[in-house]
Write a structure and sequence with these properties.
The chain has 693 residues and is α/β, with parallel strands linked by helices. The chain has 29 helices and 18 strands. The two termini are 20 Å apart. Bound molecules: adenosine-5'-triphosphate and magnesium ion. Homodimer.
Length: 693
């Protein structure tokens, strides 16, 4: 097991007596330390289920599980590898009853939250305002505040009003037996903080907790972590202060500073060798991050050789930029034999909307690509409709799911009827579903409306019963298809869409989703949020319970051979042989900074801090590249409908490249291509792929 680790890494892996912090730059093998340490802990006799490894995304979790599996085999499946949120789901499912929550609680998605907030505020607010409330409440929850504490620290009347709204909002969530995304951290924290027996249970159950990307944890997550590991502090955290890019979401570098204070026995280990990138790439990264104040001094070197110079690509417009990116991918592929896989290329950008021209250009050139971190499969309206039905089978009290299921597809139940049902359920303090079977409902609405409601209720009960009996892949698929036919979902899609093509695509998604669910019922796959690894067939009801959780917190990831388009934020922790950073313009990266035009000497503290975070984002982007890096910017950008002239980002100059060699010159490229062609010919058939590592 020792192979493939340097001395400092080995030290981190073997130190299991107490808390350990690995603090090191990008690509220095921090994540590798975590996987090897999992293996080491198991080797020394710790039961795999006593180990928890916390990652930043579900994708990172499944990758880590794979890596652990290749080191230690099947035992890896019992290690709890998941995100903070998935851990939260597990904790709330096991112990939420202490807080009055049943194990079959629902997790609300962002749209549900906005709907509930609007409703709780009297129903007149627009979506933008409701999103603002959502943002503020989320911020408070991430600071570990309940509505009373939020009220006490509110800065103005507006915030006080939101704190009052927060109370009503949380009351509704309790009534719906539902939680929002932030509760998945806040509730476990309350469980451990306020309930010693629960705390004792988790501290005994977990022998060691490992955390990747520690620099991006927020205050609540840190508190949770501390309570999970207790005073013994069997904790390994790895991180890089230069890669902290979630400050805007409440992550705080204070957690890095607090660790040595809260754990005086903390062992701090630094790693200095970068195993990912060539020296040319690493130098550009070091230059960019250099102006930022240093929390901990570090140096980083690479032994992978100088490599290709970093390319700066000047473009006229976004379309031009996209064309050049595609041309670069094609020429890099043409230059190697066999050509590197598509998945070796990544196009990274600051904001989601920047992907569009690139998608168009890639499609035009028939290049397979995947937008990662964009709209997830589970965010599609049709999938969310189906998930609402599942949520309702599992948790009849989930009112948002009830409303979504009863109206998708429409079943002739009008708004008036639903409105009356809503009022009745409020007056009688029960869920809308519960109200259906209340004898007093007779007085609240005309018989006709009531009859259709009851019919729906009976149908849900019937489905729940049938789903419980349905096991295995084949039965499940048959059940799902029957159900979709019964509710007329395909027709519903065709009615809702003007374009038949769009409707057909949505129906294909539905079928793909059913197939995927059926496979899970057959016991095939494991996913990041589903921490209990599936190995035998499950009933469809059990499967839908985990799907309902997945619907908001997981992306369905398949390993496919495609060019990756990703935001810089979503690229954290990942690596590709060839990376293109695009839209590296002032105003985009760094993103618009209020009082800073790049020339002023003095800027406000806030702006200076945001600039530091933007610089870290650029650093993250550069350090994703293993062998080649191109950085492009455009002379003109779209602003609304207009084309305005634009400047290259200050970060391009800061990379400190020699402008003569770095600019991409078409003539030089041609020369290189010729050279490579000649070299390949000489090598003839024996040529091995430089990309097959
Ligand atoms: N000792 C080593 N020998 C050889 N390769 C290594 C070694 N340590 C790490 N690597 C490789 O270097 C690359 C970067 O490692 P890893 O992803 O663990 O770095 P990291 O510090 O987590 O990076 P980031 O800060 O971007 O998350 C990986 O491909 C990994 O397999
Ligand atoms: Mg990492």
């Amino acid at each position: 097991m020792a192979h493939g680790l340097n001395l400092a890494q080995l030290q981190a892996v073997h130190y299991t007596q107490g808390p350990c912090l690995v603090l090191a730059g990008a690509g220095s093998g921090k994540t590798r330390v975590i996987t090897h340490k999992i293996a080491r802990l198991i080797e020394t006799g710790m039961a795999p289920r006593k180990i928890a490894a916390i990652t930043f995304t579900n994708k990172a979790a499944s990758e880590m599980r794979e890596r652990a599996k290749s080191l230690i085999g099947r035992q890896a499946k019992d290690v709890l590898v998941c995100t903070f949120h998935a851990l939260g789901v597990k904790m709330v499912r096991e112990d939420g009853h202490v807080l009055g929550l049943k194990p079959q609680f629902s997790i609300l998605d962002s749209d549900d939250v906005v709907g509930i907030l609007k409703d709780a505020a009297g129903g007149t607010a627009d979506v933008a305002t409701a999103r603002q409330w959502q943002w503020t409440i989320s911020k408070w929850k991430n600071m570990g505040l309940d509505y009373k504490e939020a009220l006490a620290q509110a800065a103005d009347d507006n915030e006080r009003a939101i704190a009052v709204l927060m109370q009503r909002y949380d009351e509704r969530l309790t009534a719906y037996q539902s939680v929002d995304f932030d509760d998945l951290i806040g509730m476990p924290l309350r469980l451990l903080r306020d309930h010693p027996e629960v705390r004792a249970k988790w501290q005994t159950n977990l022998g060691h907790v490992l955390v990747d990307e520690y620099q991006d944890t927020n205050a609540t997550q840190y508190e949770l972590l501390k309570l999970l590991v207790g005073e013994r502090g069997h904790l390994t955290a790895v991180g890089d202060d230069d890669q902290s890019i979630y400050g805007w979401r409440g992550a705080t570098l204070d957690n890095l500073k607090k660790l040595p204070v809260d754990y005086p026995q903390l062992k701090v280990i630094k790693l200095e060798q970068n195993y990912r990138s060539t020296s040319a790439i690493l130098r550009a990264a070091n230059n960019v991050i250099q102006p930022n104040p240093k929390l901990f001094p570090k140096t980083l070197f690479s032994e992978l050789g100088e490599g290709e110079p970093v390319r700066i690509v000047d473009c006229d417009s976004e379309e031009h930029e996209a064309e050049r990116a595609v041309a670069r991918i094609l020429s890099l592929r043409a230059a190697a034999n066999p050509p590197p896989d598509w998945k070796n290329f990544a196009i990274l950008y600051r904001a989601n909307h920047q992907a569009k021209p690139f998608e168009k250009a890639l499609r035009k050139a028939n290049v397979p690509y995947k937008v990662s971190g964009g709209t997830s499969f589970f965010d599609r309206a049709e999938i969310r409709d189906l998930c609402a039905w599942f949520r309702l089978w599992i948790n009849n009290d989930d009112d948002p799911a009830f409303l979504r299921a009863i109206t998708n597809p429409k079943r002739g139940i009008g708004h008036t009827t639903l409105g009356r049902l809503g009022e009745f359920s409020k007056a009688h303090r029960c869920s809308m579903f519960g109200a259906l079977f209340n004898a007093m409902l007779e007085d609240a609405m005309p018989a006709k409306g009531r009859e259709s409601l009851l019919e729906f209720g009976r149908y849900i009960n019937d489905l729940e019963y049938r789903a419980r009996q349905t096991r295995g892949a084949e039965e499940s698929l048959a059940f799902l298809l029957d159900w979709l036919k019964e509710i007329g979902y395909e027709q519903h899609l065709y009615d809702a869409e003007d374009s038949e093509k769009v409707a057909a695509a949505r129906w294909t998604n539905v079928l793909e989703f059913c197939d995927w669910m059926a496979q899970r019922a057959g016991g095939q796959t494991t996913t990041a949020a589903d921490t209990t690894t599936v190995s035998e067939s499950k009933s469809l009801l059990e499967v839908s319970q985990t799907i309902a959780l997945l619907s908001t917190i997981s992306e369905r990831e398949k390993e496919q051979d495609m060019v990756i388009l990703s935001t810089l934020h979503a690229s954290k922790g990942l690596e590709w042989p060839h990376v293109m950073l695009i839209g590296v313009n002032e105003g985009l990266l760094p993103f618009k900074l209020d009082d800073d035009d790049g020339r002023q000497q003095k800027v406000s503290d806030d702006t200076a801090q945001r600039l530091q975070e933007e610089r870290r984002l650029m650093y993250v982007g550069i350090t994703r590249a293993q062998r080649s890096l191109a950085v492009s910017w455009t002379k003109r950008r779209k602003k609304g409908r207009e084309l305005v002239s634009a400047l290259p980002s200050r970060f391009i100059a800061e990379m400190g490249l020699d402008s003569n060699t770095a600019r991409e010159d078409p003539r030089e490229k041609l020369r290189k291509l010729r050279e490579e062609f000649a070299a390949r010919k000489a090598q003839s058939s024996a040529a091995a792929s430089p990309d097959s590592n």
